[in-house]
Design goal:
By secondary structure, the protein is mainly alpha-helical. The protein folds into 2 domains: 87 residues, Winged helix-like DNA-binding domain superfamily/Winged helix DNA-binding domain (Arc Repressor Mutant, subunit A), CATH 1.10.10; 137 residues, Four Helix Bundle (Hemerythrin (Met), subunit A) (Up-down Bundle). It is built from 9 helices and 3 strands, in the order αβααββαααααα. It has a 3-stranded antiparallel sheet with strand order 1-3-2. It is elongated.
Length: 231
């Protein structure tokens, strides 16, 4: 009898564990899918969304959708409007300039550190990203270019060997993604971005901290000039 009770308890525990994993998986999927649609402007800035419609579109239940929306609200990507629905947070030139101002300080320092500390594996990853970026430019795949841009800056942040700096930059990059997507739709700009990334990698690979910092500053300022023209 005691064995049956223990067995039953184990089954219930396993079931609950499975349900927990499944719920988390659905929440993560809902969060990532909605976030991706916001970043790529499929859900347009200032557009009002419905949880019911998103649930139908993604084929995910209302509870994970509701939880994902609240996570996105914390991220600053949506606002909850009483009796109206969910609004995709508008993009603004002021926000872009604020992000840029912080990146000029933190990411320029990151490039300097990377020139001193990046290892061969990280340099190899950066070169691989440059190669993939060239292919996506040829295909005019803006979405993949944006994701590769994020990967490029993520590798740089890791190569600085400063966990606090990496966390700060991760947040800045996530907040930058919509602006990067908008900016990369400009054909001339995405080619310029690749050239700027190459200049940064060249300075890091040759262990020139001053040159790496200067190349990063120019990269960020070029983004600032381009995004300003689009507002």
């Amino acid at each position: 009898m005691k064995g049956a009770v223990l067995a039953g308890s184990a089954v219930r525990s396993a079931r609950k564990s499975g349900e927990s994993v499944s719920s988390k998986s659905l929440l993560d999927r809902a969060y990532n899918e909605i976030k991706h649609r916001i970043i790529t402007c499929r859900y347009r800035p200032a557009e009002v969304l419905s949880e019911a419609e998103i649930s139908l579109e993604l084929g995910i239940g209302r509870t994970p959708i509701h939880q994902a929306i609240h996570r996105l609200m914390v991220d600053g990507l949506v606002s909850i409007m009483p009796r109206k629905g969910i609004m995709v947070r508008p993009v603004s030139i002021d926000e872009a300039m604020d992000i840029t101002a912080v990146r000029l300080v933190t990411e320029s320092y990151c490039a300097r550190c990377a020139a001193e500390r990046a290892d061969e594996a990280e340099l190899k990853k950066l070169h691989a990203i440059l190669e993939q970026s060239a292919k996506m430019i040829a295909k005019r795949d803006v979405e993949q270019m944006m994701l590769l841009d994020r990967d490029f800056h993520h590798v740089l942040a890791h190569s600085a060997r400063n966990a606090v700096l990496a966390d700060v930059l991760r947040n800045l990059h996530e907040r930058s993604l919509r602006f990067w997507f908008i900016s990369l739709r400009d054909g001339d700009h995405h080619r310029n971005v690749l050239a700027e990334h190459r200049a940064i990698v060249e300075a890091i690979e040759s262990r020139q901290p001053d040159a790496a910092e200067a190349a990063m500053r120019e990269h960020i300022l070029a983004f600032q000039r381009n995004v300003t023209r689009q507002f």
